[in-house]
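RECORD TYPE: inverse folding
INPUT: structure tokens
STRUCTURE:
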């Protein structure tokens, strides 16, 4: 049960903003303020690939910073709920209900953060998709350390006799292709376009920092 609660918390935190029926709200009781006209505009804007602009990206960086604090509070608010559910007493269940109010508070805070950043729901979803694709690919490349592995493999190849070098050539070429893919973000560019990726890379350091901070929030290592 504890595991299920934490999975729920993670999904709630990382899920994109979605409309709740025809009301245009992110959650029951939370008004987005767009109304029917706003909803029609959202649907129209989703007709093609989202276009990342420097202005929208700057607003999204600010939005991320605001939401880091919200997610941090949410995780703290949900800690210990598993033990309370296991206890099953009326008092414990009352505390569980009180703790779950942080989910409702998160939806409201998310709406307020969007408004303060001047972003719509489709902006946040579109930006999040492109930014996450770029940053996660960068992070994966650093984690796997393909560049270091390629360097070692090339050094080994140079020390081998000519016939053995040839045998290793295919492996070196494959590794070099993987490194190039991570460096140039080949797959991400193919999916989201060069222009979008290039704009995101102008704020790579800040976005990477926010990404790593978010990971610390959900692993409980953020101070």
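DESIGNED SEQUENCE:
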């Amino acid at each position: 049960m504890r595991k299920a609660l934490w999975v729920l918390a993670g999904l709630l935190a990382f899920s994109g903003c979605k409309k709740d029926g025809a009301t245009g709200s992110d959650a029951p009781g939370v008004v987005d303020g767009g109304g029917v006209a706003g909803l029609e505009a959202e649907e129209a804007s989703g007709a093609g690939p989202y276009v990342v602009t420097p202005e929208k990206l700057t607003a999204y960086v600010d939005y991320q910073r605001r939401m880091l604090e919200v997610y941090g509070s949410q995780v703290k608010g949900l800690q210990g709920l598993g033990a309370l559910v296991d206890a099953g007493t009326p008092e414990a269940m009352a505390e569980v209900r009180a703790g779950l109010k942080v989910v409702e508070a998160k939806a409201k805070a998310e709406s307020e953060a969007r408004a303060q950043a001047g972003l719509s729901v489709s902006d946040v979803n579109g930006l999040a998709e492109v930014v996450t694709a770029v940053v996660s690919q960068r992070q994966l490349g650093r984690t796997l350390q393909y560049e270091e592995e390629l360097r070692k493999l090339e050094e080994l190849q140079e020390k081998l006799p000519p016939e053995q070098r040839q045998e290793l050539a295919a492996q070196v070429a494959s590794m070099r292709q993987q490194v190039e893919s991570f460096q140039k973000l080949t797959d991400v560019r193919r999916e989201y376009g060069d222009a979008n990726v290039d704009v995101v890379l102008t704020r790579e350091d800040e976005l990477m920092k926010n990404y790593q901070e978010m990971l610390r929030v959900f692993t409980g290592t953020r101070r």
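NOTES: Confidence is low (pLDDT under 50) at residues 1-15, 19-45.
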